[in-house]
Amino acid sequence: MSNAHGYNDFTLGGFGFRRDEYFAHITWTTRDGKPMSHTLDAGNFLRALMRDVAWGFFYGWVNFDDVFGTVNHYGTVDIYAGAFNGAMKDAGVDRMENHPTSDIRDVFERMLADWTNAGFDPFAAPQETGSPYGPKNGDNLPAITRARELAKRCVGLQGDLALRTDAGGSPINRAFADVSQDAPELHPEPGFENEVHAFNLFAFLSRSQVTWNPSFTSVVKNSFMCPTTEEHILPIIHGNDRVEWFFQMCDEIHWNCDHKETGEPLARVIMKAGDMAAMPAYCRHKGFSPKRSMLLVWENGNPKLVDDIKSGAAPQVPVSF
Amino acid sequence: MPTYRTRFGSLNDYDKGRVEPINDDVRHYAFSNCFEIANNSKPYEKVVFGQNMQYVLEVLRAEGSSPWYTCAHDEFALCMDGEFEIHLVKLVPDATVQDKDKEGAVLVDGEPRGQNMGWMKLGRGHQGMLPAGCAYQFRSSKPAVIVLQTCKGDLSIERWADICQTA
Q1: Cβ distance of B118 and A188 shorter than 8 Å
Q2: Which residue from A153, A157, A201 is facing B125, i.e. has the nearest CB?
Q3: pTM of the entire structure?
């Protein structure tokens, strides 16, 4: 049954979700039994929801804002309101529930599909998509069901993730019109055509159709190069459960880094072309990219790392010196 | 429609950012810059500037010809400035790294023994594969900057206090 604005309401455990023309409204009952609510801009909510769904709840915390979000336990997921907001936690008005991943994914996927109107692409930069606002107006299923682009060894190898091309539906983005599209010179001897291999990573990224959505481009064991193109604001505040590394390949991104548990500000990190920085595992971070830029997110995807994280054995800082 | 200018860095022209601490130790962000590291490195020093357990990203200043390296696992070289060549040889089995779990690159003992695989020339933004079990050599007539995706090995150099912002 849709509401007066044409959108369906959703529930997950003790949480309720309702959207109107401009906002997403979340309701819950506090630990001492009082009704509580929170309101987010509908566009911002959908951009965050898109990442949470597409990334399978990602590594650690996906904060939609300072109040609402999820924590991935790789099999189950916590959903919370106020649990990682120092003031709300102290006031006892927070709520956290744990659900099987399949249950929360089902609700989130249906909510994303129902609340995303035709013409609005939650993955696109704000200048490159239509409005998220207004009463229910169709849907945009192709945009919200994109598959993540994951190379198994390296982009462009035979049988691996293909290069991006005009013909493949990946034109050069307006902000990267000046990025060279030249190809590396390859001179393989006969029989080594698939081993003497290189590709133009910057050209590949210049053709990305999405923002703040890493793909895999090269893999060494469980070391994943996850470059992505960033424009405007990271739609989530990511609280990683492991150290995460960023290598800024062009232009710049400004990061706000806060304490993961309380939201207390810790540092600003200003990254420009050639800069490398780590996000310690105790922080949560949100990025601001004034111009579309290329960021290499470098992840350790070792599945055993999850056990180290659960036991507290995983390092909180990238390196000690 | 505005005209955008994409800003890349180079050995001769880069603008390093910074950590602006509020209530934290800046060393916990391991903040560095690949061009600054390369400007302060000898040719083909493998300077670790990212470390995630056993995995590393290294900065190499390419200048002249490197030694011949080999590795038990794949590695990938990204060109961040300049141009360089990568020459590849498929090593005969007894010339490869015998410990298949050995991590990081090692030097080839003498000249590489095996079949010539060919070569490639990379410019800025190009990423080349260094397949497991082959020998490779970088060659560059002018200084260039390589970011290498690999594992920490015998040749990796760590000098965090020198490359990272500390205050």
Answers
A1: yes
A2: A201
A3: 0.97
